[in-house]
Amino acid sequence: MTLSTMVAKMRFKFHANAVDWNNVLNQLNIISDDKAEAKIKDHVMTIVNDILPRLGYDVEKFFKK
Predict the structure, then answer these.
(1) What tens digit of pLDDT does each residue of 45-59 get?
(2) Phi/psi at 58 (nearest 5 deg)?
(3) Fewer CB near the last or first residue (10 Å), C or N of the chain?
(4) What angle do CA 36, 42, 54 make, to 5 degrees?
(5) Are the C-beta atoms of residues 9 and 17 closer than 8 Å to each other?
(6) What are the DSSP calls for 17-44, one per residue?
């Protein structure tokens, strides 16, 4: 496993955990629904657009019928 693959996996775990953190903060009414949704969208889009292609996944195939 190359260094770039290890870093991409760590970044994936971080952004996936950040989605969970934002959900928890939203459920505890610490952040609003709109703010949580915006932050979650940013983290998910980072995963889809940047991290998954670096790990070798064909993201375009996921969205084609």
Answers:
(1) 999 999 999 999 988
(2) -90, 95
(3) C
(4) 145
(5) no
(6) HHHHHHHHHHHTTSS-HHHHHHHHHHHH
- 5-52 per-position pLDDT tens digit: 999 999 999 999 999 999 999 999 999 999 999 999 999 999 999 999
Whats the size of the chain, residue-wise?
Answer: 65
Q: Which residues contact 43 (CB under 8 A, 6 or more apart)?
A: 15, 16, 18, 19, 22
- Angle at which helices 33-46 and 3-27 cross, to 10°: 170
Joined tokens for residue 25: 């903060």
Amino acid 1: pLDDT: 82
Structure tokens that stand for 32 in this block: 């609003």
The secondary structure of residue 20, as a DSSP letter, is: H
